[in-house]
Amino acid sequence: MGYAIRAEVLDLGVYKAGKPIDEVKRELGLEEVIKLASNENPLGCSPKVKEALNDIINETHMYPDASNFELKEAISKKLGVSPEQVFCGTGSDSLIRVICNTFINPGDESIMAEITFPRYEASVKLMGGKVISIPMKDNGLDIEAMVDAITERTKIIWFCNPNNPTGTIFTKQELDKVLGKIPPNVVIIMDEAYIEYVTDKNFPNSLELLPKYPNMVVLRTFSKAYGLASLRCGYGIVHKELGEYFNRIIGPFDVNLFAQKAAIAALEDEAFLNLVFETNLKGREYLYGELDKMKLPYAKTNANFIMMNTLVDDKIVFDRLLKAGIIVRPGHLLGMPGWMRVTIGTEVQNHKFIKALKEILATM
Ligand SMILES: Cc1ncc(COP(=O)(O)O)c(C=O)c1O
Q: Which family does it belong to (predicted)?
């Protein structure tokens, strides 16, 4: 049609999300389908969230609070930071874009792991930036090599910890070793979308680092452990001056009323969060045990998913799991052919997955 589309947009692909349950039911004529593909919370959300949503069910016609006042207060209280340090958006996905909008000029470089959350790459490229992709080390981020790749054109370095899709972490000691080598004009993103699931005691405390590193941005989300993925609410913690710049770009009503109220209620329910953590831990140990018995390699995870090696063609395993009513994330879409990422589900879901996987692999 001769549209004058920017070259950066012409080059972008559309994000391929995990297959929705209804689509699989429709396409395969299945009645029961479970989704272990997008690292959603199999326990749903806190009952307190449902109450909070019921309370505002008649308020759909009202714009939400553009300043996210109460939500920022609640987050800051929980984390021990000041409300001016908190910024909120439509999922941390949208905040990744905001960060790129703020810093990336055409030709600027941004460093990320070769296998990590794909939205960093898309957002950098949208701004005309150049992605510097660093090979993995033992399925995790090679943060030393990432930092060594910094040049005078580098604007942003993306540390996804735990890393999606491998579930691996880098430790406080490893981070401490490289932080001093990062110039103050390079923005360090600590994407901690899965922090609530972390069990490793050596996981770095990024909030403690913030006062010393005003170039650090900590990103978190309500989509995972809090179980609010559909409401789209993410947040970040930064030096307050940087937060002011981000807030110039974030749309005034990006976090809708339901998301704001739900997130506040979710923060108040520690018991639910503990249940989520314990359920995930139990599921993780069960899956480790079964994968060990099946002699299938996997990456040790600190998140609510496991990246495992099928040792066969992951496309075939994915298709056959689909037919059994189980949606997972095939590794070929994530840059790891042969592997598969599976969200840790409820006990029943995990058993169903393992049973189906055993049956499929026995015939291959
Ligand atoms: C590492 C990581 N960061 C950010 C996000 C974005 O989450 P949301 O936009 O739902 O907050 C995800 C979602 O899967 C993720 O895995």
A: Belongs to the class-II pyridoxal-phosphate-dependent aminotransferase family. Histidinol-phosphate aminotransferase subfamily.
Give the pLDDT score at 307.
98
Q: Which residues of the chain have pLDDT under 50?
A: none
The fourth-level CATH superfamily of domain 7-45+271-362 is: Aspartate Aminotransferase, domain 1 (3.90.1150.10)
- pLDDT value of position 80: 97
Q: What is the pLDDT of residues 31-61, one digit of tens each?
A: 999 999 999 999 999 999 999 999 999 999 9
Chain position carrying tokens 């004058």: 4
Query: In this structure, are strands 234-237 and 216-221 parallel, antiparallel, or unpaired?
Result: antiparallel
The architecture in CATH of the region 47-269 reads 3-Layer(aba) Sandwich (3.40)
**Cα–ligand 1 centroid distance for 121 (angstroms):** 13
Q: What is the pLDDT of residue 231?
A: 98
Same fold across 7-45+271-362 and 47-269: no
Q: Using the mean position of ligand 1's atoms as its centre, give its distance from the Cα of residue 3 in Å.
A: 32
Pocket residue to mutate for ligand 1, from 120, 158, 224, 231, most atoms within 8 A of Cβ: 224
Q: Tell me, what's the pLDDT at 1?
A: 80
CA distances 348 to 284, 345, 359, Å, are 13, 8, 17
Task: State in Å, rounded, how far the first CA of the chain is from the last one.
Answer: 48
Domain ranges for the chain, please list them. Answer: 7-45+271-362, 47-269
* Residues with Cβ within 8 Å of residue 114, at least 6 apart in sequence: 133, 134, 135, 136, 335
